[in-house]
Amino acid sequence: MPASLETCLSDLECSTSSSSSDLSGFLTDEEDCARLQPPASASGPPAPPRRGVSGVPVAPDVPVAQEDDQEKRRRRGRARVRSEALMHSLRRSRRVKANDRERNRMHNLNAALDALRSVLPSFPDDTKLTKIETLRFAYNYIWALAETLRLADQGLPGGSARERLLPPQCVPCLPGPPSPASDAESWGSSAAATSPLSDPSSPAASEDFAYGPGDPLFSFPGLSKDLLHTTPCFVPYH
DNA sequence: TAGGCCATCTGGTCCT
DNA sequence: AGGACCAGATGGCCTA
């Protein structure tokens, strides 16, 4: 049990007769009594009013010590009801706060996904990519951009295009080699020599990234024509 | 109507 | 102790 809760509960135990403002919304003493009092049929008629120290004897059927025990039990029962209500309320308020944080966290995640979508090539049909499509597309897009740089390096003398275009710290961030191809042969043989499907470093070589020609995610505006013609890396994955 | 996608809630676990 | 993160459950909405 959390310490703060224990503190609250111990406070409760020490003030069984008060209706603290901290407990507003919980059971009042009257409500506790109404809930905890046994039904009249079970306990019989209420005990007759007892006399004080005036010398008149109290009711002989209920000894004073026994009545004190009953009162103590009632007080303990009321305290337990209040403490359970308080525990439930504290748990509830913490859960509500946790739900709020979780909702906010997911909103932030969705905002990041939207930002990612905004920098990916868009398509005429303007269909919004799903989350998984966005991630897969981004992965493949990065790979394709890296391939463009690699091809540019091959055609440009006097230094690496990648080094000219990318800050050094970005180069190690490029996608690493995904898992080996499982169905690369199914994409024909004409482009196989230069296709990412035959390139073990291509995302398309992974069955998790099975995009390809004919799918809107297949082509990238702005990428080299040569690469686009040889990059069947965006096959519909479903 | 079934299936996919999504938002939200929830409890558990890890981290600071 | 409290927050972040994660995964499972659930229900709503949309589409083929």
UniProtKB/TrEMBL annotation:
Positions of the BHLH domain: 93-145
GO molecular function: DNA-binding transcription factor activity, RNA polymerase II-specific; E-box binding; protein dimerization activity
Record's compositionally biased regions (Low complexity): 7-24, 38-59, 189-206
Domain of life: Eukaryota
Xref: Pfam families: HLH
Signal peptide residues on this chain, from the entry's feature table: none
Region (Disordered): 1-84, 172-209
Keywords: Activator, Developmental protein, Differentiation, DNA-binding, Neurogenesis, Nucleus, Transcription, Transcription regulation
Keyword Membrane: no
Gene3D superfamilies: Helix-loop-helix DNA-binding domain
GO biological process: axon development; forebrain development; positive regulation of transcription by RNA polymerase II; sensory organ development
GO CC terms of this entry: nucleus
Stated name of the protein: Neurogenin-1
Provenance organism: Chrysochloris asiatica (Cape golden mole)
Lineage, opening ranks: Eukaryota, Metazoa, Chordata, Craniata, Vertebrata
Gene that produces this protein: NEUROG1
